[in-house]
Structure formats: structure tokens, C-alpha cells
Amino acid sequence: MGSEPSATAAGTIDVGGDLTVNRLGFGAMRITGQGIWGDPPDREQARATLRRAVELGINFIDTADSYGPEVSETLIAEALYPYPDDLVIATKGGLTRSGPNKWDQDGRPAHLREACEGSLRRLRLDQIPLYQFHAPDARVPLADSIGTLVEMKAEGKIRHIGVSNFSEEQLREAQTLTPVVSVQNRYNVGDRSSESMLDLCSQEGIAFIPWAPIQQTDDKAAVRVAAERLGVDPRQVVLAWMLQHSSAMLPIPGTGSPKHLEANVAAASLSLTGQEQSAIASGG
Q1: pLDDT-derived band at 216, boundaries 50, 70, 90
Q2: Within-domain flag for 20
Q3: Does the pLDDT at position 174 exceed 50?
Q4: Active site residues
Q5: Which of 178, 183, 187, 206 could join 210 in a cystine, given CB atoms 3.0 to 4.6 angstroms apart?
């Protein structure tokens, strides 16, 4: 049992100043069906994956009302309620679904209120620890969308507010309305377009939650070399690189398989050399 992987090896991060979680979380998008649509092929395996995540020390789970839609949140409650005291569930609202792999923005205040209240019901929560605006809607003033979340926070339905798929300019606008405790943008070794956002988050004590963290690894020679030295999968090297790259980073690799989950968590215990970190950072 001593060799079992644990998310505690990643160290911890404070979210919002009062939520301390292990710095390797779980993204619950892929416990749904193909195209992030409908039920997974095996609902019990999805629930088993969630339970295994908690067993392995993960205490931050990221989801959204649009995953399924509604399927991911429902499965989380089925598998884990009543929740462990230290478990932080983060969910998101602001995207709607019309079919597999189809995503549309909806930042209207009425929609966000309906989305948040639906998430509260499905997750069986009185308050969502971290509620993130999933993506800006060009048709709706950002102040209107964020303002709705501020209202629901004042009502006690939301503890902390985060944002997703935001530019620095949009973040600054949101910060004029409310404290923003997390930013969830696409980030991986092949797409570091949010590097300046990561730096900003690090400077301001904001958690940076990279989505798609283990994509685009196969063509990176430096990743393969490190993986061969350590005798691990390249995807594990990428996660280890992220954890060492910035203390603001809170990776949330997702999977519907307990076996893949265990491999992801094992990455928290890997240690890359400074040379390997630099080679991967330079895109080699």
C-alpha cells in the first residue's frame, strides 16, 4: 500500500484564501458520453473512477453543467455524496449544448442563474465552493454576466467566483466587480498561449487551472526523453512538468478509467531535472 500514488505528493494550493486543496485535481468532463454528450458507456465505471479519485487524495473536482449536459454533475453526487469534508467541487455555467461536441456561449443573467441553481440541485449542495463563468458571451456585456454571479454569491449560493477562457483584459474587467480566485484556460506543452495569464495568476495568488493539460505531447522530443529516463508515460511527464513549472498551477487531468486515473496521480511523485524542465519549456 505504501507505493500507492497520492495527489498529496503534488503539494497544496489555496483557492480563495480559505480552500486548501491538493495541487492535482480531477476534471470530470470525460465521465460522460462520446463528444461530452449523454451518459458514459458504463455509469458504474464512471462512479468508480470518481470514488477512486477521492481514495487517491484528490480533493478538487472540476465539472460543469454543460458536461453531458448535466450528466457529470449527477454522477458526482451519485458517487460521492455525502461528500468528504475536504472535497472542493468546482462547477461552471455559461455554455449550452445542442449535440455532441457542440458548444455555444450563453452569458445572459437569466441563463446563468438557472444554470447555477440547477448545479446546486444536481450536486446536492447548498453552496458551490467555486463557480466559474465558463466563457464570455460576445452578445452580453461581461459586467452583466459577472454581476449575476456576484448577486448569487451575495445570496450564499456561491462561495468563490472564477472565470474560464478569459483574456487578461476580460479578467481585469471582472476584477473591478468581484474578487476572482481562479482562471481556467487551455494550457499544455503544445499550447502555452496563456503563459502570460499564468504569470499574472502567480503574481496575484490566483489559481490557474489548465484545461486539456495532457494534449499535444506525442511530438515533443524532450518529453519522450524524460519519459524514457523515468520509465513512465509521456502524459505523466507533462503533468509533472506543469506542477514544477508554476506553483499557481492546478492541473485537472480527466479520464473515465480508474487505471488512467492512477497513472495521472502517480505523476505528482515524479521529479524532473532542471535541464528536462527547460528543454520541455523551450518546446523541444
Answers
A1: low
A2: yes
A3: yes
A4: 67
A5: 187
Cβ burial of 219 (10 Å; 0-12, 13-18, 19+) is: exposed
Residue 135 placed within a domain:
yes
Structural domain of 187: 7-216+249-255
Q: What's the mean pLDDT in 54-73?
A: 98
- Report the predicted TM-score, pTM, of the whole model to 2 decimal places: 0.96
CB 211 within 8 A of CB 166: no
Measured CA to CA in angstroms, residue 36 lies from 69, 104, 106, 117, 126 at distances of 8, 14, 18, 21, 26
Instruction: Give residues with Cβ within 8 angstroms of 148, minimum separation 6.
Output: 109, 112, 113
Q: Are strands 26-27 and 95-96 parallel, antiparallel or unpaired?
A: unpaired
Three cell numbers written together for 33: 458520453
Q: What is the pLDDT of residues 69-78, one digit of tens each?
A: 999 999 999 9
**Tally of domains in the chain:** 1
8 A C-beta contact, residue 128 and residue 158: yes
Q: Is the dihedral of CA 13, 160, 213, 40 positive or negative?
A: positive
Residue % of the chain over a pLDDT of 90: 94
- Determine, yes or no, domain membership for 276: no
Residue 26 lies in a domain: yes
C-alpha 264/C-alpha 248 separation (Å) is: 19
End-to-end Cα spacing for the chain = 37
